[in-house]
Specification:
Blueprint lengths: L50 E5 L3 E3 L5 E3 L7 E2 L17 E4 L3 E5 L1 H6 L9 E7 L2 E8 L2 H18 L5 H11 L21 H12 L1 H8 L5
Helix pairs in contact: 2-4, 3-4, 4-5
């Protein structure tokens, strides 16, 4: 089947065999929010830890002093641009969520120099100079921001236990993630196992290595 996204989509199909049958437009595709079955490759692969985005911030002041508000929530729930499962073969995805909205990160200086009028330039929070080039801190949104959060968290866990396998990491995620919807069952095709908790995950990693470490962690206050 082929689904054309957006009311203005224009696609030409050429039949080699069989017949083409049109159906009513899927209403899920007519708005900005991502609906079911929108997680594709590589996130849909069985052994891949698929990351969705939560939205904790939706507004900021840019470098020009202009206050911008983005069209998503600020209450820590799944961001409306974050794709949902299940996969086409019925598996639950995503696996975990992480903050992805209005995340401040560095911007490539060559990107700025090549196209200073690019649309997301309005999201720049500040500029700085380094060795003759102009760099920027940019407020970006998307699962491209939430995925590195999870990758960094897993990197910390691997420092504590370099032998962790992907399945073990996913097990730790399943046991320690925060549930933004207390009425929902987890995992589900909206939030996976919930939003990653880096500290709780590290406690779980260390506790598995030694009961003595677990006892020490029980008395430790997270900072």
């Amino acid at each position: 089947s082929v689904e054309m996204v957006g009311l203005d989509a224009d696609v030409e199909l050429f039949r080699l065999s069989g017949s083409l049958v049109t159906n009513d437009l899927n209403a899920e595709l007519c708005h900005q929010q991502k609906g079911p079955y929108t997680i594709g490759s590589p996130g849909s692969a069985p052994c891949v830890i698929c990351v969705g985005a939560t939205s904790h911030r939706n507004n900021f002041f840019n470098a020009e002093g202009v206050h911008l508000t983005k069209p998503f929530a600020d209450d820590g729930t799944r961001a409306n641009y974050s794709a949902m499962g299940p996969t086409l073969d019925g598996r639950v995805k995503p696996d975990v969520l992480a903050p992805g909205s209005c995340v401040v990160s560095s911007m490539n200086s060559y990107y700025l120099a090549a196209d200073p009028s690019e649309g997301d330039v309005e999201n720049i929070r500040s500029y700085f100079q380094w060795k003759g080039r102009t760099y920027a801190w940019n407020s970006s949104s998307g699962t491209s921001m939430s995925t590195p959060v999870v990758a960094g968290a897993i990197a910390l866990w691997l420092q504590a236990d370099p032998m962790l396998t992907p399945s073990q990491v996913l097990d730790i995620i399943s046991l320690t993630s925060r549930h933004t919807d207390v009425s929902a069952s987890y995992p589900n095709n909206i939030e996976g196992y919930g939003e990653i908790d880096v500290y709780a995950g590290m406690v779980e990693v260390l506790s598995r290595q030694s009961s003595a470490i677990g006892s020490l962690i029980d008395r430790h206050q997270p900072a």
